[in-house]
Amino acid sequence: MMNVALLIVSILMNLVASSILKNDFCKKEVKNNGDLYAFNALTSVLSVVTLGIMAVVMGSLTSVSMYTVLLGILFGIVTALAAIFNMKALECGPMSYTSVIISCSLVIPSFSGLVLYGEPIAPLQYIGVVCMLASFVCAMDKKNDKAGVSVKWFLYCMVSFLFNGSIGVMQKIHQNSSHKDELSVFLLMAFLVSTVFSAIMIPVSLRSRKGGAESRLTVTAKEKVKKYLVVGIICGVFIAFCNQINMYLSGEMDSVVFFPVVNGAYMILTAIVGVLFLKERFSVKQWIGLVLGTAAIFLLCMA
Questions:
Q1: Which pick of 87, 208, 217, 265 has the fewest CB atoms within 10 Å?
Q2: Are 293 and 101 contacting, i.e. CB atoms less than 8 angstroms apart?
Q3: Minimum mean pLDDT among 149-163, 211-225, 260-274, 275-289: which range?
């Protein structure tokens, strides 16, 4: 019962932090890339604090090797870029379809096992890849502008897809090394680097606009700043808990149960929220794509 309760908590936290709050923030509050980097820096530093407290409580802090430090730095930069392009996609496209495409990125670490470690690929995974590609094809439907889809949105999704898949590959590489016991430090290093990287990119992204509109995070009213802080704190803490809970459950539950449930339930709930509460509307072709994308996730996880 404890594992089931933790699984439900993880799914709901991920839904709130990664979809609902970020989607609302990106569509209503973002004015330029500086806003995105500032928001990601805030959520990342809160994740560092939360993960650090949990690591101390659980006694999982260990001495760290140079291998973990270097891989953690790369992991942190990729994590930051994955989050930024995810938010860019949410800024200009539908939440439900965005989450489907980006969640399909689990195909990358799945097939990396074949290349790096000779792990076999199950027939269901090949079927899942076909469903995933068909879902991508169905995503773009010029006849339906109401869904908010565009070439720009699709490209943001695909870049985030690649970065998210790279995250899984690096996790796989680290956990197949002799330094796998340094996982807590690895996560802390990653979110710390994500914080620093995002903070550095704030002035860089604003200068690149050459006198364009200022960031709302720097000129907005105090009430708006409070909203950013509240949303950032919730997202940062929830993301940290999701990482810790999923890391624990992946070792306590059978993979054939854990991965389809945690990914599939998140996808279904995101679609429900998008359609019922955010009034996202799709063409028949795009609905078929959503169903195929969800099926792809289940097939890839179950395999």
A1: 208
A2: yes
A3: 211-225
231 vs 8: CA distance, rounded Å: 21
258 half-sphere exposure, CB direction, 13 A CA radius: 15
User: Which amino acid type is present at position 41?
Assistant: A
Cβ proximity of 76 and 194 under 8 Å: yes
d(CA 66, CA 59): 21
Report angle CA 166, 172, 176 to the nearest 5 degrees: 150
The pLDDT score that the predictor gives to residue 69 is 92
**Tokens (6 digits) for 177:** 């090394």
* pLDDT tens-digit readout, 162-198: 998 898 888 888 878 898 888 888 889 899 999 999 9
Rounded Cα distance between 249 and 195, Å, is: 26
Q: Is 280 helix (H, G, I), strand (E, B) or coil?
A: coil
Instruction: Name the nearest CA neighbour of 93 among 151, 138, 142, 132.
Output: 151
The confidence band for 145, taking pLDDT boundaries of 50, 70 and 90, is low
pLDDT band (50, 70, 90) for residue 253: confident
Where does the pLDDT of residue 212 fall: very low under 50, low under 70, confident under 90, or very high at 90 and above?
very low
What are the φ/ψ torsions at residue 266 (nearest 5 degrees)?
A: -60, -45
Q: What is the pLDDT of residues 7-18, one digit of tens each?
A: 899 999 989 988
Classify 177 in phi/psi space as left (phi over 0), alpha (psi -120 to 50) or beta: beta
The encoded tokens of residue 208 equal 């690149």
HSE value, Cβ hemisphere, 13 Å, CA-based, for 190: 27
The Cα–Cα gap between 112 and 109 comes to: 5
Q: The tokens of 261 are what?
A: 């449930």
